[in-house]
Amino acid sequence: MTRFGYTLMTEQSGPKDLVRHAVAAERVGFDFEVASDHYFPWLSAQGHAPYAWSVLGAVAHATERVDLMTYVTCPTVRYHPAVVAQKAATLGVMSDGRFALGLGAGENLNEHVVGQGWPSVDARQDMLVEAIEIIRALHTGELTTWEGDYFRIDSARVWDLPDEPVQIGVAVGGEKAVRRFAPLADHLVATEPDADLLSAWGSTDGAPTIGSPARAVGQIPICWDPDRDAAVARAHEQFRWFAGGWAVNADLPTTAGFAGATQFVRPEDVAENIPCGPDLDAIVEAVKPFWEAGFTDVALVQVGGDSVDRFLEEAAEPLLEKLRAASA
User: Fold this and answer.
1) pLDDT band at 244, cuts 50/70/90?
2) pLDDT attached to residue 246
3) CA-to-CA distance for 110 and 89, rounded, in angstroms?
4) How far apart are CA 320 and CA 32, in angstroms?
5) In angstroms, rounded to a whole number, what is the distance separating the alpha carbons of residues 31 and 275?
6) Confidence (pTM)
7) Is-contact 121 115, C-beta < 8 A?
8) Which of 10, 40, 71, 98 makes a 20 to 30 Å CA pair with 107?
9) Residue 295 has what DSSP assignment?
């Protein structure tokens, strides 16, 4: 059966609210929770960007049942992979093994802040391969020295490790990325319900099988509100960046860049891509392509930080019932 998760959007809520949302999402029955890891929001209207790892540490302590995951962290520019290995292991311990490390090749928006430039996509993928190898090595608990093309480690060791190694999901956006990362990953991460990605994963030598043991984790934005017009307006204000697609979004460096790139996106354009309003059946129909494509897990994003409390109180539980009935 498909599992349904809730997204802790660090771009649209402050750290204390995110922890509160995490507890409420567990209480209403979500199976897992993922957290974005950004230094910037995409648009200034979103208004937040707390440190995701501090938030996740608090969430691990405040929740008991839900699985947790970064969706996703870039372990190459803003963070050195040795530091990511330590952070992930600590969260594995704090969550009693409920944490999985979602990794990706990053976005200029978040990585440019350390002044190291923005590599080409091929270089970013090379860096990610090396980073995964480093994280895996450090998660053995052994003293590790490493010298690669992009990273060096001098006698590093992660001292606090969970009972089982932290599993790693990797974000992939095409067949080339699948072929490269599937043998290195435990789980697939994607933002589009693309059955071809799962097919390519399944035909790649060394890739774990989707469903058992690997999971295919997708994500979809929704904008529930009793007032559809209010939902459309909020989605347009805060989530019109979504219309650009990751091929564009990965290279834009600032919120001003995202605002400029989406200045001609209309509210009706956003409403065509994001289910808006009170109709839970419409949300189910929007999510349906993920389980039809073979995704095992789907994380929902409720657009608009101020709307999250009401969504979790009024709509989340009946929506989960509908999603589970439809996906079964």
Assistant:
1) low
2) 62
3) 23
4) 12
5) 21
6) 0.96
7) no
8) 98
9) -
Residue in the structure block whose two tokens are 């290279």: 251
Establish whether 314 is a catalytic residue: no
Catalytic residue among 21, 26, 33, 38: 38
Do the beta carbons of residue 219 and residue 34 sit within 8 Å?
yes
Letter for the amino acid at 88?
A
99-103 and 297-302: which strand pairing? unpaired
pLDDT, mean of residues 104-126: 95
Residue partners of 119: CB distance under 8 A and separation at least 6: 77, 127
- The one-letter amino acid code at 26 reads E
CA proximity to 224, closest of 301, 326, 324, 327: 301
Q: Which pLDDT does position 223 carry in this prediction?
A: 98
Q: Which amino acid is at 20?
A: R
Count other C-beta atoms under 10 Å from residue 244's C-beta: 16
Closest among 44, 38, 32 to 15, alpha carbons compared: 38
**What is the pLDDT at residue 221?**
97
For the question of residue 107 being annotated catalytic, the response is yes
- In the CATH hierarchy, which fold is given to the domain comprising 3-327? TIM Barrel (3.20.20)
Burial 25-56 (b: 16+ CB within 10 A, else e): bbebbbbbbbbbbbbbbbbebbebbbebbebb
Cα(318)–Cα(322) distance, rounded to whole angstroms? 6
For strands 167-171 and 99-103, give the pairing. parallel
Residue whose structure tokens are 């989340």? 316
pLDDT over threshold 70, residue 261: yes
| pLDDT in the model for residue 222 | 98
Using CA atoms, how far residue 228 sits from 7, 202, 231, in Å, is 21, 40, 5
Distance of alpha carbon 134 from alpha carbon 154, whole angstroms: 12
Ramachandran angles phi, psi of 67, nearest 5° = -75, 155
Q: Does residue 252 register a pLDDT over 90?
A: no
Give just the sign of the alpha carbon dihedral 74, 79, 254, 232: positive
What does each C-alpha distance from 323 to 3, 225, 284, 291, 317 come to in angstroms?
A: 9, 18, 6, 10, 10
